[in-house]
Amino acid sequence: MGYKKIKLSLNTQLILSLVLIIIFLVLSIVISINNIFVKKFDQYIVDANKAEIVTLIESIESSYKNGTWNKGDIDQIGKLAITKCLFIDLYDKNNNLIWGAKTYNDDLCYQILSDIKDNMITVIPSWSGEYTESNYDLNDNNGDKIGYLKVGSYDSPYYLDAEINFLKDINKVIIIIGILMTIIAIIIGVIIAKKISKSLETLSCMAKKMGHGGYKQKLKYNSNIIEIDNLINSINDLSYKLDEQENLRKRLTTDISHELLTPLTSIQTHLEAMIDGIWEANTERLSSVIEEVIRLTNLVNQLRNLSKFDSDKNKLNLSKVNLANLLKNIIYNNQGNAFEKNINIGFEVEDISVYLDKDKMSQVIVNLLSNAIRYTPSNGNIHIQGYKKGDTIKIHFKDDGIGILEKDLKYIFERFYRVDESRSKNTGGIGVGLTIVKSIVDLHDGSIEVKSKINNGSEFIITLPNLENKVNHL
Ligand code: ADP
Question: Cα separation of 350 and 366, whole Å?
C-alpha cells in the first residue's frame, strides 16, 4: 500500500526541526550540568565527613586530661555528632563504655538514620547507603593509647537537610535557565525560519509572475543568507534574459513578416498593375519582379540554412587542414565585393595545419569576411591574421569600417539581432551570420571575442584549441 507523504510548509518544517534540536540540546546540557554538579557535590560531602570525623577524634582526645574524661564535653560532642548522622561509642583502654550514642538515645539515632534514608531516596531513588561502623584509636599528648572511638554512619554519601535544600535550589536554577534557554532559542528559531521562508515565498511569487510573462520586474529583496541572495540574483538575471529573449522574439516576428511582406507587396502591386493594363509587362518591369522574388528566395534560404545548422550542429567532421590555404581560397572566392568597393585585404597567415571541420569553419570565415566587406566603406582596409599561440590557433578579422556601438556588442551574436535595421536591410542579412559563427566556434571548443569602436572599425578574434586528440579518439 502506497503511503502519502505529509507535506508541510517550509516554515513549519524549519520551526519543528529547530525546536526539536533546541529541546534536545537544552535537555542534554541540563542533564550534563546536573550530573557533573551531583558528582562534585558527593565528593565534597565525602571530604566533609572525613574532616568531621578527624575533628571529632581531636575534640574527644582533648577532653581527656590527667587520666580522666571530661564527661560534660563528651556528652556535648556526642550529641552534636548525632545531629550530623555520626553515632559514636567511646571506650577507654580497658574496653569500658564511657559514652554511647544509642545508650544516650536509641530512638533518636534510629529516627535520624531513617529520616536521612527517606530524604536520600527522594533525591536519588537509586541511593543504597548501608549503616557501617569503624574504629579509631585515641591517644593522649604523649602518644599513649587512652581508648578508642567507634563511629557508625552510612557508607554512601548522604545529605543533611540544609544540603538537600541547597541541591533543590540549584536544580531549580538549572531548570529555570533551561526553560529560558528553550524559550529564547525557539523565538530565534522562529525568526530565522520566517526569514528564510519569507524570502523563498517572495522568490516563488516572482517566478509565478515570470510564468505569466512579467519579465520586466526586478526582485528588490536583500537577504543576509548568501545562498538566498545568489538565488535572488540568478532569478533577476533569468528575468532579465527572458525579457531580452522575448524582445528578440517579438523583433524577429516583426522582422520576418516585414522582410517577407515588402517584396511580396511589391510583387503584388507590379503584377496587379500589369494585369489591369496600367503597366505594360515589359522586360524592365518583369526583371524588377524577378529581383524581388530572388530577394525572397535568399531570405527563405538563409532561414532554411539556419534550421539545417540547428539540426546537425552537434556533428563535427574534423580533419587536418592547412589554415593559410583555407583562408586564401575563401578570400579568393569572395573578393568580388571587395574589388567593387576597392577594399584592400591584407593577409598574414602562418603556414600551419589545424584540426577543424572544414565545411563549418569555411562558413565561419565566409560570414566574418563578408561582414567585414559589408560594413567597411569604399577604399577601406581589411586585415586577416592567423598564427599559433601556445597550444591554440588564433584567427583575426580586422577592418577599419563603421564599427559597432558598445551597447550593441553584447547582442550581435544573438539570433536575428541586427544593429541598425534600416542599415542592414540593404545588406540582405537577417542577423544570423554571427550566431552561426559563434555556434561553430563553440562546437570546436573555441571562443570568439570582438573589439569594436564606432567609426573606427571592428576586430573579431577566434581562438581554437588543438583538436588532434579529439580526432584520435574518434
Ligand atoms: P547579418 O546576417 O544581418 O549580417 P550578423 O549576425 O552577421 O547579421 O551580424 C549582426 C550585426 O552585427 C549586424 O547587424 C551588423 O550590423 C553587425 N556587424 C557584424 N559584423 C560587423 C563588422 N565587421 N562591422 C560592423 N558591424 C558588424
Answer: 19
Half-sphere exposure for 373 (CA within 13 Å, toward CB):
20
Rounded to 5 degrees, φ, ψ at 158 are: -135, 155
CA distance 209 to 212: 5
Which DSSP string do the residues of 148-212 spell out, in sequence order?
EEEEEEESS----HHHHHHHHHHHHHHHHHHHHHHHHHHHHHHHHHHHHHHHHHHHHHHHHHHHT
Rounded CA-CA distance 178/158 in Å is 27
3-state helix, strand, coil in the chain (%, to 5): 60, 15, 25
pTM: 0.50
* Distance between CA atoms of residues 103 and 105, nearest Å: 6
Ligand 1 pocket member 343 (CB < 6 A):
no
- Nearest atom in ligand 1 to 419's CA: 14
CA of residue 159 to ligand 1 center, whole Å: 95
pLDDT tens track for 118-150: 988 988 888 888 999 999 999 988 888 999 999
Q: Is 306 in the pocket of ligand 1 (CB under 6 A)?
A: no
- 8 Å CB contact between 33 and 175: no
Q: Are strands 381-389 and 344-349 parallel, antiparallel or unpaired?
A: parallel
Q: Is residue 208 within 8 Å of 215, Cβ to Cβ? A: no
What gap in Å lies between CA 404 and CA 409, rounded to an integer? Answer: 6
Torsion of CA 74, 76, 78, 83, to 10 degrees: -170
Q: Which of 214, 220, 222, 221 is nearest to 239 (CA)?
A: 214
Rounded CA separation 86/133 (Å): 10
Q: Is the dihedral of CA 443, 448, 454, 457 positive or negative?
A: negative
Residues 418 and 251: beta-carbon distance below 8 Å: no
Judge residue 221's burial from the number of C-beta atoms within 10 Å of its C-beta, 0-12 exposed, 13-18 middle, 19 or more buried: middle
The atom number, within ligand 1, closest to the CA of 399 reads: 23
CA 156/CA 129 separation, integer angstroms: 5
SS3 label, residue 272 = helix
**Cβ distance 129 to 3 under 8 Å?**
no
Residue 290, C-alpha cell as written in the block = 524577378
For residue 156, give the nearest of 230, 85, 207, 243 by alpha carbon. Answer: 85
Residue 228 Cβ < 6 Å to ligand 1: no
Residues 6+ apart with CB under 8 A from 240: 215, 218
pLDDT tens-digit readout, 302-348: 777 666 666 555 678 899 999 999 999 999 988 888 999 999 999 99
